[in-house]
Amino acid sequence: MAGLRVRSALVTGANRGIGLGIVKQLLQMPNPLEWDFAACWDPKGERAQELEHLAPKHPNLVIIPLEVTDPASIQAAAARVREHLKGSGLNLLINNAGIAKVISLDTETVENMSQVYATNTVGPLLVSQAFLPLLKKAAQGSSSSELSCSKAAIINMSSIVGSIEKICFWDNVQYISYRCSKAALNMLTKCQSLGYRQHGILCAALHPGWVQTDMGNSAGHKIGCFLGQPPLTVDVSVQGMLNVLCSLSEKDTGTFLDWEGKALPW
């Protein structure tokens, strides 16, 4: 991670799982962040206790209330981050917050489709829009003319199950709303890469692998008899992804990669 030199980063869904893992490893970087913003919808809730316990030990960790399906909450979070940054920009935005419903094609509902799409696709769109001025400011303040995560970047946490070309696990778990939301997130990432390149902002979608989180273990219970339990720990997945972020450059904007940096089919 030595190649990742950012002054500030914001991670959504930071109270548990991959989001919490990213926050922890950002705090341990050899080049410490001035601001590590950890955003989650209920910072005082039971599921955010581990994140809350980190704050007293790390003065650069700022916990931000943020519900990605609530435009007012998003705007309030952007205002709080702006206050902390005191005129500087935000280098790295990681749209990690997401939900999944393990439901079959025949039983999928309007409510589930709408809820999952709102969180996994519309949420990253609105969060990116709200923090765009701060990302632009970071890019403008950089001495580098090349795109990189150290300059300014939006990283959307996607999944291989959103790949239309490579339909993974279909015979075991159908995940209709989740698959559709991640396929749409991939398209959003491509659109962002085209729209924000002129502002010096790199955009990419990452697949973290099948990870031992609440979501990953839940899928494992459904398909465990076929595939076993998730093979990746949070630490291994996050370390891999942060190493990938270190290496991203101009040629990687608008791409879909896994935690090892391998290109994935759309």
Question: How much helix is in the residues?
Answer: 40-55%
Order of helices and strands: EHEHEHEHEHEHHE
Helix segment count? 7
Please tell me how large the radius of gyration is: 17 Å
- How many DSSP E strands? 7
Rough shape?
Answer: globular
Average pLDDT metric: 92
What is the terminal-to-terminal distance? 27 Å
* Estimated structural class: alpha/beta
Strand content: 5-15%
Q: What strand order characterises the main sheet? A: 3-2-1-4-5-6-7
Q: The biggest beta sheet, please? A: 7 strands, parallel
Low-confidence stretches: none
Could you describe the 3D structure shown?
The chain has helices at 17-27, 49-54, 71-85, 110-140, 176-196, 214-227, 234-247; strands at 8-11, 35-40, 61-65, 92-95, 153-157, 202-207, 255-258. Strands 3-2-1-4-5-6-7 form a seven-stranded parallel β-sheet, sandwiched between helices. Strand 5, helix 5 and strand 6 (202-207) form a beta-alpha-beta unit. The two termini are 27 Å apart. 42% of the residues lie in helices and 13% in strands. It has seven helices and seven strands; from the N terminus they run E-H-E-H-E-H-E-H-E-H-E-H-H-E. It is an alpha/beta fold.
Summarize the structure.
The chain is an alpha/beta fold and 266 residues long.
Task: Describe the SSE topology.
Elements: E1 8-11, H1 17-27, E2 35-40, H2 49-54, E3 61-65, H3 71-85, E4 92-95, H4 110-140, E5 153-157, H5 176-196, E6 202-207, H6 214-227, H7 234-247, E7 255-258
Parallel strand pairs: 1-2, 1-4, 2-3, 4-5, 5-6, 6-7
Helix pairs in contact: 1-7, 3-4, 4-5
